[in-house]
Design brief:
Elements: E1 2-5, H1 8-13, E2 17-19, H2 30-40, H3 51-56, E3 59-62, E4 65-66, E5 79-83
Parallel strand pairs: 1-5
Antiparallel strand pairs: 1-2, 3-4, 3-5
Protein name: MoaD/ThiS family protein
InterPro entries: Beta-grasp_dom_sf, Mopterin_synth/thiamin_S_b
Organism: Kocuria oceani
């Protein structure tokens, strides 16, 4: 699965995108993916908030469609965009 980070999420993860291997033995939810990401990025880059904090206030797009439900299934080959709150218009 491809994870793409934007704005503060990119800063907290220290990358703009990454490929994440998800468990193949059971269905994966957005909540599961978030937990895997937090474990993969336990320490933020200097001066950045922890990724867990950013994820808690972010919106997500799953294959280009809003994914507000943390229990939504996420297919192994999906693209998940992490969109923290943006200011401005």
């Amino acid at each position: 699965m491809l994870i793409r980070y934007f704005a503060a999420a990119r800063a907290a993860a220290g990358t703009e995108a990454e490929t994440l291997a998800v468990p193949a033995d059971r269905p994966c939810t957005r909540r599961d993916v978030e937990a895997l990401l937090v474990r993969a990025h336990p320490q933020p880059p200097p001066g950045q908030p922890p990724l867990a904090e950013v994820l808690a206030r972010s919106s997500f797009l799953l294959d280009g469609v809003a994914c507000p439900d943390p229990d939504a299934p996420v297919p192994a080959g999906a693209v998940l965009d992490v969109l923290p709150p943006f200011s401005g218009g």
